[in-house]
Amino acid sequence: MGVLKFFLPKGRHPRLIRFGFYRGMRLRLDLQCELQNYLGLYEYETFAAMRRLARGCRSFLDLGAAKGELTVYFLRLRGIERVVAVEPSATEREIFAANLALNQLQSDPRLRIHAGYAGQGLAPDWQTLDELAANLPSPVFLKIDIDGPEAAVLDTGQETLAGKDCRLLIETHSPEAETGCIERLQRLGYVTRIIRPGTWRLLIPEHRTISHNRWLIARRRPQGTESL
Question: Which of 27, 30, 31, 98 is the most buried (most CB within 10 A)?
């Protein structure tokens, strides 16, 4: 798909998404570097699991919200009462704000944005997972995409993970982080599954800068025939 960028318009502009997980949303996209987002192919491997785990959720915690497309998705989802989005980058938050406005969500009272970090550090820039999730009703969908310290963030959310019905999607960026997340979650009674990039990515790669990049989904041990 790299050759296509020479034929695509330059610059970030509002686009109506017509395909995939974000279909029907309007997002500011630069097609030269975000064509897969527009076509519904970016992180396609996670979509079925996210739809399944999101059913019945009442709140969403987005750690590493970036441009906010997943926050917008959950705000548009029926039954969502509270959303907390965490994004330290001012550049990303500017695009995030534009995407909220494009979907008439800029003043949504359900949304709180923390312009800092998740984990253990000095307040007010840092908030623990337990602090961020304190007022979120269960079930909670928790997404973590923070480029490295995923397991360390889980350590700051023991009360939340033990006491709430959490469903998790964690993007892992090293084998150590992946193993650490699995061990912590399984100790708390969660079942986990790794989602690997599809083999078709050999033809349509995402050109990620980190060599180890895959996803981990988790939820409390399912009842009956329910599974991940």
Answer: 27
Locate all alpha helices (DSSP H) within the chain, ordered by sequence. Answer: 31-39, 47-54, 69-75, 90-102, 129-132, 150-155, 158-163, 175-187
Bridge partners (DSSP) listed for residue 215: 171, 195
Q: Which class for 177: exposed (0-12), middle (13-18), buried (19 or more C-beta within 10 A)?
A: buried
pLDDT tens digits, one per residue of 183-197: 999 999 999 999 998
Single pTM value for the model: 0.92
Query: Strands 126-127, 140-144: parallel, antiparallel or unpaired by DSSP?
Result: unpaired
What phi and psi, each to the nearest 5 degrees, are found at residue 209? -85, -20
For the stretch 43-89, pLDDT in tens is: 999 999 999 999 999 999 999 999 999 999 999 999 999 999 999 99
**Structural domain boundaries of the chain?**
1-42, 46-220
Q: Strands, DSSP E only, in the chain?
A: 12-16, 26-30, 59-63, 82-86, 111-114, 117-118, 126-127, 140-144, 166-172, 190-195, 214-220
Confidence of residue 4 (pLDDT cuts 50, 70, 90): low
3-state secondary structure of 36: helix
Q: How far is residue 100's CA from residue 86's CA, in Å, rounded to a whole number? A: 14
- The gap from C-alpha 118 to its chain's centroid, in whole angstroms, comes to 14
* Residues whose CB falls within 8 Å of the CB of residue 204, separated by 6 or more in sequence, listed in order: 1, 36, 41
| Residue pLDDT, tens place only, 138-156 | 999 999 999 878 999 999 9
